[in-house]
Amino acid sequence: MIEKSTNIKQQNVITQSKRIWTPLMTTCFVQILGEFEQRYEYWRSLSPKTSLGDNDYSVLCHYDFLASEIDEAHIKDIKKAMLALAKEGLYKQEEDGSWKYVNIIGETSYNAKSKTFRVDLNHSFIPYLIQAKEGGCYTTYNASIARQFTGKYTERFYEFVQQYRRKKEKEFFLDVADLREWFGLNETTPRKVNKAIVQKPKFARLYDFIRKVITPAEVEMKELYDAGSCDVYFECFRKDEDKKSSGGRPSNERLWFRIHEKEIVKVTKKATVLDGNNNTAMLEASQLYNAFIVILNRIYDDEHGQNYLNLIKRPLADLLVKDRKAFERMVDKVRGVENDPTVYSKPKYARAIMRDEFEILPQNLK
Q: Whole-angstrom Cα distance, residue 298 to residue 229?
């Protein structure tokens, strides 16, 4: 099964090209990326070339998954998710009108005897994964958080927020025309208007678009944030210059988004902060810390547990800075406690692991 804290790192062009994915499509994509991560270092060490001297991506293209690695109880649903992913791709358009479209998956199949899925990534898609791995313009987000969302559009807005999260001003804008294209809302359907049947796209009016697409995602993310199950939320607003009308219609249908995130703990006496603004490593450490706090909030969900959690946040952050591998081992062990149905007292067991194996003590007891 996929580790619940898996982080997805994808190029921004992929973030902006994705349509609306089901949770199972995301799960399958995370599974593929996990295998890619494991093979990447091996491929990089070999640096294989084709007979023409180009990079040989063969070892990064072909993947086999047992159904049990994803969800053996829902083979038919996985089939639908895989076939839907096979239709997905990234679309990139240049300012001069040039454009490019690349499918993510070249071929996918299922062997009923061995209960194995085969996924062949499109050879032309591999460079985009490598660029995201090696740096550049990419989006990193937590898959375990993304899979919580039930709203149709919430996961996509979560990805957009993560894409722009590192901006100092914590604000970004998106054009409604682009959102409509990414969400597949430009397809027209017959609608009755004044007793006449006309072809209109869904949520053609900006008011309806905000009410049906933006607001539900905004509300769901804020509710999960307040519950301690999401690390960020957004507020959607419009600026005065975007409200100026031309012929009864806004001259530029543009929406602005303000990012809100939890204040991160200072972790050293030198005021080193896990705020994601310093570099990639700090961003990933911040996301790892926040994801673990989400897990602990679920385990310590009463008033006494929350008091204990507040007292160990600083020691947790200190351990992350001092020994990240030890922190990751601790996360894995505590997650195992959370997911083990045979553990009766999860708060007590998790506390014993953190105290005895990793010396995490409440600050007032140190």
A: 8
Instruction: Tell me the C-alpha distance between 263 and 241, whole Å.
Output: 31
User: How far is Cα 177 from Cα 257, in angstroms, rounded to an integer?
Assistant: 16
pLDDT of amino acid 24: 78
Number of H helices, E strands in the chain: 15, 14
Tokens found for residue 38:
């494991």
Q: Give DSSP secondary structure letters for 37-83.
A: HHHHHHHHHH--B-TTSSB--HHHHEEEEEHHHH-GGGHHHHHHHHH
The DSSP symbol for 242 reads G
| Distance, CA of 120 to CA of 64 (rounded, Å) | 9
Mean pLDDT for the stretch of residues 233-249? 72
Query: Which amino acid makes up residue 204?
Result: A
Taking the C-alpha atoms of residue 201 and residue 196, their distance in angstroms, rounded to an integer, is 15
Higher pLDDT, 65 or 216: 216
Of the chain, the percentage scoring pLDDT greater than 90 comes to 13
What letter does residue 211 receive in the DSSP assignment? I
Q: What is the pLDDT of residue 339?
A: 82
| Dihedral pair phi/psi, residue 296, rounded to 5° | -65, -35
Strand partners, 121: 105
- 317-322, long-range: CB < 8 A, 24+ apart: 317/264, 317/265, 317/266, 317/267, 317/274, 317/289, 318/267, 318/268, 319/358, 319/360, 320/267, 320/274, 320/285, 320/288, 320/289, 321/267, 321/268, 321/272, 321/274, 321/285
Measured in Å, how far apart are the chain's first and last C-alpha atoms?
38
Taking alpha carbons only, the member of 353, 231, 339 closest to residue 294 is 231
pLDDT at position 137, please? 56
Query: What's phi and psi for 181, nearest 5 deg?
Result: -70, -45
